[in-house]
Specification:
22% strand, globular, 5-stranded parallel β-sheet, 438 residues, 2 domains, 14 helices, 8-stranded mixed β-sheet, alpha/beta, single chain, Rossmann fold
Length: 438
């Protein structure tokens, strides 16, 4: 297919080089149209080397081909990454002062704009209004990521990772970017044949995401570091694989963007609320993915008023009690009552200790919980939680191993899937889809 990759003048333009390579690796023809100012960040020679196509910025170059019209007319998809505040304003106004804005105006192809700018610019009323108008016209405007920006600043406005942009672009192209096959030991992923039927078409997948908060008093709670990024990546991958997706969203640093429009989102905060939501939905879905970081314990007593420091300096004693084991209960209901999801996937975020390897703990959890698949990752203060990258291993029950082996897709012991959380999600959905094969 023919993709026009527009690049406007933001420092995040360097990430678009990787995005262009991803499109090329999938066999697409990529025409890069940088704005003149963006060449201050990434030069013309780089774009021509990556795309293998001539690169121009002005409507007065290649006049005999009428490129400002032809590129837009022939494109199957237009992606602009980064899309600066200036580019968004020009697109909203229908301006056509260079080759990129002219191409946008002359095309009826699906269009994906990927903003990148400082937080204040993204949140400015003018930008907010521009985005609203563009979306109202049917143009996809991706939510920016939250993180480190230029200089010392941090906040919403960061360009999403190229793999995440590509996932949304694939959805607009109609390419079902599911279950990237994993080349064992290489750390590389490759896309399957995009022409085959989505493997989860007609299936419903329930996904839990984010963390839980257990209130201690009106202002304090026990919580965890889960950001919800992995859960949203799973929702995108399941939706791309053709599934109807239901998302039970705990406390998350990120929220579903417009690319997940149409999915049912159930907000919860405590483990008890999550427990109730899962039980209500589990009997009506084909698969359950428990990606939420669920608190094992909650305060036994809730203080109606803020807990104060004592005058005598003694430390307060907080008694904890167990929360319900949602994963184990769902597996038990399926086993004893014959109701519930056909495939149940658990997550094991383990730190290990001096005497026990975290992988061993994950294997023990798989046996104890009885789920079909268990996604294991090592976690820590600066590892996995809140990051865009991850490292997972998919463990399978004995029954699931037999079924996966029959399709030649059994996760090999010791093989770790390294990459973005979106790539990890696609690997999980790939295994899940083969277990759901009729």
């Amino acid at each position: 297919m023919k993709i026009v990759l527009g690049v406007s003048a933001g420092i995040a333009a360097y990430k678009a080089v990787h995005l262009a390579r991803l499109f090329k690796e999938d066999g697409h023809q990529v025409d890069v149209i940088p704005t003149p100012a963006s060449l201050e960040f990434v030069g013309k020679a780089t774009w021509e080397a990556i795309s293998g196509r001539p690169v121009t910025t002005s409507v007065f170059e290649g006049v005999d081909e009428v490129r400002h019209v032809r590129l837009g007319q022939e494109a199957d998809l237009i992606v602009v990454a980064p899309a600066t505040a200036d580019l968004l304003a020009k697109a909203r106004a229908g301006m056509a002062g260079d080759l990129l804005t002219s191409t946008l105006l002359a095309s009826e192809a699906p269009t994906l704009l990927v903003p990148a700018m400082h937080t204040e610019m993204w949140q400015h009323p003018a930008t907010v209004e521009n985005v609203e108008v563009l979306r109202g016209r049917g143009i996809q405007v991706m939510e920016p990521a939250t993180g480190r920006l230029t200089g010392k600043d941090s906040g919403p406005g960061r360009l999403p990772e190229p793999e995440d942009i590509k996932t949304q672009a694939d959805a607009l192209l109609g390419v079902q970017n599911f279950g990237h096959a994993y080349a064992a030991g290489t750390g590389e992923f490759y896309a399957p044949d995009p022409n085959i039927q989505p493997p989860l078409l007609g299936k419903t997948v329930l996904i839990t995401a984010g963390g839980t908060r257990e209130p201690l008093d009106p202002v304090r709670y026990l919580g965890n570091r889960s950001s919800g990024r992995q859960g949203l990546a799973l929702a995108r991958a399941a939706q791309a694989a053709g599934a109807e997706v239901k998302l039970i969203a705990g406390v998350m640093d990120v929220q579903p963007g417009p690319e997940l429009r149409g999915i049912e989102v159930v907000p919860v905060e405590t483990t008890e609320q999550l427990h109730g939501a899962v039980l209500r939905e589990a009997d009506t879905v084909d698969a359950l993915i428990m990606a939420a970081a669920v608190a094992d314990f909650r305060p036994a007593d809730y203080a109606a008023t803020k807990i104060k420091k004592s005058d005598d300096g003694t430390n307060p004693v907080i008694t904890l009690e167990r929360n319900p084991d949602i994963l184990a209960e769902t597996v038990t209901r399926r086993k004893e009552q014959g109701i519930g999801p056909g495939v149940i996937v658990g997550f094991a975020a383990e730190t290990g200790d001096e005497s026990t390897d975290p992988l061993q703990l994950a294997q023990q959890k798989l046996q104890r919980k009885g789920c079909d698949l268990l996604v294991f990752n090592r976690v820590g203060e600066n590892l996995v939680f809140g990051q865009d990258t991850t490292e997972i291993q998919i463990l399978a029950s004995e029954a699931a191993k037999e079924q996966l082996a029959a399709t030649g897709s059994e996760p090999e012991p010791g093989v770790r899937v390294r990459g973005t959380k979106q790539q990890a999600a696609e690997a999980v959905i790939g295994c899940l889809s083969r277990l759901l094969t009729d």
